[in-house]
Amino acid sequence: MTAPDGTSPAAPHRSDQVRAHLVDLVHERAVGDLLPSDRELSARFGIGRTSVRHVVDMLVAEGLLVRAQGRGTFVAPPRADFQMRITTFGEEVRRRGMTPGSRVLVAVTVPAPDAVADTLALDAGDLVYRVQRLRTADGEPWAVEDAWIPVALAPHLLHGGVPESLDGALRAYGHPPTDGAETISAADATAEEAALLEMTGPRAVLRVDRRTFAHDVPLIHSLTSFRGDRYSVFVPLDEARSTGPVGA
Q1: pTM score > 0.70 for this model?
Q2: In what residue span(s) does the HTH gntR-type domain sit (predicted)?
């Protein structure tokens, strides 16, 4: 029996074969390489084009493939699936098998702006370091990071230049990060961000507003804008557990 889209009872197994074939091609080929069309995959695996399209759509959603209207399906640039935990940009990029890098844009000592003083539990006029960097992975721009750190926690932090890892430098001062909180929102890149991130197409970014603590001591307030096509968030979910009577 054949379904309206041309699939057969064996289609679920063939869908798995199509998926495995495309994943293999992603690993074998370079970013931007053209992949077989839906029609070619349908003929090769004996599966309806609707089922092929579903497999491709799933791989697009996972960030492995990218579709271009009227042009075809291509190998997508790698994306970072940053997990919700206290890690640095460098650690997450290395976890992906890539090489992190950065270019310092701003490194100054200034009185804390009101909003920064509030998030870092400082008094008006207290000094903070402001460190803005362009963060890269394998030389490609991924994010613009703006970080604020109380000078009192690390009096000589910027002596000799900006350390590779701000978290690591704070550890050396006896303030290891232990926990934090993030707010993630979607936004359009500013003109400056779009230029730094070399965004020539869609200008969507994910903005991550993070506060990092050493127990109850605020360490860093950072605002990072990630290219939307190179960033995703991994959030593990547990089964919901009732904390009271059903319907309460």
Answers
A1: no
A2: 8-78
